[in-house]
UniProtKB/TrEMBL annotation:
Belongs to the band 7/mec-2 family. GO terms for cellular component: plasma membrane. The chain crosses the membrane at residues 28-53. It is found in: Membrane. This is CLUMA_CG000062, isoform A. It comes from Clunio marinus. Its main location: membrane.
Amino acid sequence: MDCVTTDSLNCECYVQMPEGQRGGLIEILATVGSIILMIVTFPISVFICFKVVQEYERAVIFRMGRLRSGGARGPGVFFVLPCIDNYCKVDLRTVSFDVPPQEVLTKDSVTVSVDAVVYYRISDPLKAVVQVANYSHSTRLLAATTLRNVLGTRNLSELLIEREAISHTMQISLDEATDPWGVKVERVEIKDVSLPTQLQRAMATEAEAAREARAKVIAAEGEMKSARALKEAADTMCESPAALQLRYLQTLNSISAEKNSTIIFPLPIDLISPLLNLVKK
């Protein structure tokens, strides 16, 4: 009971019904009228009052704008009253969508274009209908924003190598953000990373130069090992003159096996040095 004072002598009192009780009374009257209408129009009303949802669907029912207790209905048959009940179907199957290519500036100031695919499903039909206006559109916008935010903290090399780790980070971020909406993000995959043409050429040139450098190092190491082996062989032949003679004969044998018409006999310089001295005299 509320009391309103008009002057110092008179006090006008009146009874004000709470808002919830007025709504409840109107709802009761509307429910009774709906039941009467259903009885009058029977059996035609049976086709209007009984609804069916599939195994992968749930129905969220509102009665005069208020969410009915008992949670989402389904799967199977459920009952609604004509004129005062309306319902919304929610699909519980996993849905996938492509995130449009996003122009991302990486941590090392390289602009790349990245697109991804997101898989999600509805975990709570009531939240998906009541807490957000359009859960599908909101999830798509949030996925595009999260993709730019996550990739902006990574270098280009990390973006190209650690795709799985980046996808896992995006999945956790999206799942935490969409949990109040009743949406469960199951998986995020980065599809493609597009680099500018000039950057691709620069990376190809860098990779080619790195391969050439490695090839030169390998060739130098091979020549060093070969020179070391020749030095050891020469030292061994110096210790044993017979070994040098055997090597000389082996070389002649190899030349003769090739059936060459000309054979060159190398002579040690020690044999012809006396002749050279005589010529000088």
